[in-house]
Amino acid sequence: MTAIHEPFDTSPASGQKPATRLILALLKRSRGAFSVALVACVLNGIASVMLVATLNRALSSTASADSALAWRFALCAVVALITRVVSGVLFARLSQDTMAQLREHVARRVAAAELRDVERIGAAPVQSVLTDDATNVSMLFFALPNIVMHGSIVFGCLGYLAWLSWPVCVLALAAIITGSLGYHLGDRRAIASLEAAGQSQDKLFGYLGALFAGAKELKLHRVRSQQFVDGQLGAAIGEVRDHRRRAFSAYAVGVGWIIFLFYGFLGAAAFWPSLGVRADTGATAGYVVVFLFMLVPLDGLLNNIPTLNAARVSLGRIEKVMAEFGSLRVQATPISSTHDASFETLTMRGVTHSYFHERDERMFRIGPVDLSFAPGELVFIVGGNGSGKTTLAKVLTGLYEPETGVIEVDGKPVTASERAAYRERFTAVFNDFHLFDGLLGIIDPNDASRAAADARANALVARLALDHKVKVIDGAFSTRELSTGQRKRLALVVAYLEDRPLYLFDEWAADQDPAFKAVFYEQLLPELRARGKTVIVVTHDDRYFSIADRVLKLENGMVVNETRGGGVRAATIAQAQANGTMG
């Protein structure tokens, strides 16, 4: 058994919040570069403070500045330049690496999650964290060098003020502390607004998806389009805008408040007689120089805090969305060949599964189901809409976990840790299938024999009358700009090439014209059965029931009838005669 590998470890640690765990995991891979970048930022801050100290000393000297001070100033300037460039380059790389790692992390978690969780959560929250939230986290690494450098300069200037005058330094600290208290109140409101903006953005991504998915319906109904774009979509856009306005306005007020207090500090330092500043013009000039030099990095430090908080909120959102997918399961090593996947019987014993039935707005349960399948067998599953056919197919293929009962292969139960390997036995084309842009998992792009695989794929493409539309070149489709029926035929080509022991087709022929239905039912399905495959077909095409070995009928999630062998055709004719459809 092997565990799913994640890009980084986010296992819980004592006393660490989820966002803290995730950022530490992000930095773990690049801790060397991160450490060098931080050291460069600190050195930049030290060099900057030494620059102002040297300049202050040169300006306050009654004599002309000597060459030693000039060389010291030049050296500090060079060090400041080099450290700023080094830290900027390293943090830029860390920013993009972090975004890539986050997206890889999210993609892997979604790919490893149970299908029921993927369907329940939907794409909108994941798209939100992959775009806006991942960008916010990556921007943290653009803000970090400014935060560290500006913070180093501010603390260095405070230390220099303390060396010049303790009363002035205490006054500056009082201004910072008082301003920070006011800033903190606005910061709490800003974070709440950023979290609300994230929730609104999830809705926005859902509506943006509907804008494309429902394009036909919107264009056919002007009032519907107007109500959707100006109403639901417009409201979501406005919510995100308003929440972010409030957040960044709160930060702007906080920054302005602290800068105002520093102006108050400057006035007190210059005009408060008890400090003794006015008695020494040179000292006053020194305070002013240090203060003015500190004002710009202080402003930069405060203006980068919103980026830091936005990243913190986004990290929390990413962890929350990932937690909704549940913990990663331990997967068995995938089956590497059809020989390894061979079986004698596949049995469902007392299997049940419940889900919310949207049409009736109630919980719907399939089962208990007791079925058995064997190699070289062709089985049809029939029933009305909403009878549970597709859900049964998903449970059978291991995409849904049985709530009660068990699935057995040759008498051995399929456990939760073995379900991933069990799924590898199936090839399926569901009614809501997705067609990837090539033969992924079938043809290795680096395999020297891919030309032969391409030829086999193109032969199947020609057999399904798609060769005038699409070609398989180096394992990739030349186009996917096809009708739904044509894309289903191409999906059938992919399924045919996978060559697994069990095949499942969910309403495959529903979008096909009669000629291709005949090819599917009368040629391809019998060929698969002749090759020893177990073929399960969800269908409404009673015209072809006679080719099946068994026809299973579902009603309200239960198998209510099973017709076998030669009785299939007879039952079909009898039913048709009773309905007056055959002579």
From TrEMBL:
SUPFAM superfamilies, A to Z: ABC transporter transmembrane region (SSF90123), P-loop containing nucleoside triphosphate hydrolases (SSF52540)
Keyword presence, Metal-binding: no
Where does the sequence pass through the membrane? 33-55, 70-92, 137-155, 161-183, 250-272, 284-302
InterPro entries, alphabetized: AAA+_ATPase, ABC1_TM_dom, ABC1_TM_sf, ABC_transporter-like_ATP-bd, Cyc_pep_transpt_SyrD/YojI, P-loop_NTPase, Type_1_exporter
Q: Which residues belong to any copy of the ABC transporter domain?
A: 346-581
GO MF term set: ABC-type transporter activity; ATP binding; ATP hydrolysis activity; ATPase-coupled lipid transmembrane transporter activity; peptide transmembrane transporter activity
Q: Which GO terms describe its cellular component?
A: plasma membrane
Protein name per UniProt: ABC-type siderophore export system fused ATPase and permease components
Instruction: Please tell me the species this chain comes from.
Output: Caballeronia insecticola
